[in-house]
Amino acid sequence: CETGTEAMCRRTTGTWLLLPSFGFLFDIDGVLVRGRTPIPAARAAFGKLVNPQGQFLVPVVFVTNAGNCLRQKKAEQLSHLLGISQDQVMMSHSPLRMFKRYHKKCVLVSGQGPLLDIAQDLGFCQPITIDTLREKRPLLDAVDHDRRPNVLVSEISVVLFGEPVRWETSLQLIIDVLLTSGYPGNPYGQENYPHIPVLACNMDLMWVAEAQSPRFGHGTFMVCLENIYKKITGKDLKYEALMGKPSRLTYQYAEHLIRAQALQRSWEQPIQTLYAVGDNVMTDVYGANLYNRYLQESSAARCRSVLVCTGVYDPHSEVALPSGDSVAENVFHGHRDFSFDPALVEPDHIVPDVDAAVDLVFQLENFAPR
């Protein structure tokens, strides 16, 4: 091993093995795949990240803001690129595992996919879907004043996993629950503020699939819910917790998974740098830079943002990346609870694709696996 490299070396059976002092946080949509179609550079990148036995050479966590499936399913969806463990996959809702104080309470869950399975996998014991509530209370749009609902209790929370299919139904019923403290058969009450807890996952305004232009994300649904609530009540919708990138909570959980991998592989070298590779300036870059700012205040570790050009970010767009004097005029696509700071949307590095990102990081870290 060369003197001065940031990666530590360990002597094993007469050969030197490189020990990483860094880890990767890979976004999925727009970085590894577009919809269900793999991005060609992803295969080349993964070929550099594993040894002949298929083991990762560095700790890797796949951090997606998707929340419409179990992490096992997301790991299976990525199996065409590389065999990965569900422990390496972090969904936008994964940090909800830490919110144990809500696990035994009744929760109304919004989104799509196997919502009950997702909620139960996270630890929730009494999840109720929007569809179940709608079936039990078919007259909710008219607000039934005569009966209390037979599916909800007073100790209820609302968990927003992701954008639903029928927005108008979900918006109506969530508003009903918020304005009646969990009894949507009752009339709206002006005294119900602050309202019952709301936990939201995935704040992406838009995301990239097979279509040529970005599609509405869960952040757009949240904008609708927030504005409807304020229009009716004159007050701001409050969140008990926001998770998914760019939330610090998400990066803290991802760092925990990175360090757990290093411990499992007996890599003694401390993980000093996280490289967050993503395609969205307002999500991936903002989140990584925000977390780096937090780390600089609290530890010696750092988080570096790497922006790829295969997803939401378009280097050829006139407003592709806010910078310089134009930044104040640029539209902020982040969530309303995250203040806009021009420094947080400037990536540390811009590369064409994820393969180039891996090459760049290996070069920066003097990491040359053999």
UniProtKB/TrEMBL annotation:
Highest taxon of source: Eukaryota
Cellular-component GO terms for this entry: mitochondrion
Keyword Signal included in the entry's annotation: yes
Alphabetical list of Pfam families matching this protein: Hydrolase_6, Hydrolase_like
Keywords recorded for this protein, A-Z: Signal
GO BP annotations listed: glycerophospholipid biosynthetic process
Family of the protein in this entry: Belongs to the HAD-like hydrolase superfamily.
UniProt-recorded name of the protein: Haloacid dehalogenase-like hydrolase domain-containing 5
Organism whose genome encodes this protein: Geospiza parvula (Small tree-finch)
